[in-house]
Design goal:
single chain, 213 residues, alpha+beta, Membrane-bound Lytic Murein Transglycosylase D, Chain A, Immunoglobulin-like, Muramoyl-pentapeptide Carboxypeptidase, domain 1, 3 domains, four-stranded antiparallel sheet, 25% helix
């Protein structure tokens, strides 16, 4: 099978799912060792990254005839995890939300640590997160991009991480506009950094530490 060139929105899970494979079979293949070392995280790909996709192997299972046999598909779904915090960096625990994933609505609440955790299909692309007030009315809205993270060396990668941490920086357009600067300032305030609204090395390093990738 020829190499696959990653496009915007691709991640290892979505690429593997498209070719009928498990994500770890692709990510851990020896021919992807250099890519793995470079990106560290299977959800962090940049457009133009070249991914080796191995051939799909058939697996045979024995079973008695005239009997029913149950098979379970492994590797699905993926897990969306977002920690919600306010502008002071405090967790937003037990907050009701409405999450829409590719047209499917889910209503739930964050846990005591401000964590939103939902199962999503590997090929999910777009979502909308609406935070609700005590009466169940819409209070705050965030647009989400599923399945990938741009590298943290890119402004768009910084915007994606800030958004997933609950900071409102608008769409991940790769531009350092006013909303991104305000989101950076809020993140800096909540993490003991100089509140300058700039994407300096200290802020980028702290963001990677807090986000975990």
């Amino acid at each position: 099978m020829p190499d696959y060139t990653a496009k915007q929105g691709d991640c290892i899970s979505s690429i593997a799912q498209r070719h009928g494979l498990f994500w770890d079979k692709v990510w851990n293949h020896p021919k992807n060792a250099k890519l793995k070392e470079k990106r560290k995280d299977p959800n962090v790909l940049s457009p133009g990254d070249v991914v080796f996709v191995p051939e799909k192997e058939e697996k045979q299972e024995s079973g008695s005839t005239e009997q029913k046999h149950r098979f379970r598909r492994k590797g699905l779904p993926e897990k969306l995890r977002i920690y919600l915090k306010n502008e002071n960096g405090e967790v937003r625990a037990n907050v009701s939300y409405l999450l829409t994933i590719d047209g499917e609505n889910r209503r739930n609440t964050t846990d005591g640590s401000g964590l939103l955790a939902e199962a999503i299909p590997p090929n999910a692309r777009q979502g909308r997160l609406v935070l609700l007030d005590e009466r169940g009315n819409p209070e705050e809205e965030h647009l989400l991009s599923f399945g990938h993270l741009d590298p943290i060396t890119e402004v768009s990668g910084v915007q994606m991480r800030l958004s997933n941490l609950g900071y409102d920086c608008g769409p991940a357009d790769g531009k350092m506009g006013p909303r991104t600067s305000e989101a950076l300032r809020a993140f800096q305030k909540g993490n003991g950094l100089e509140e300058n609204g700039r994407l300096d090395d200290a802020t980028r390093t702290k963001l990677q530490e807090v986000y975990g990738s």
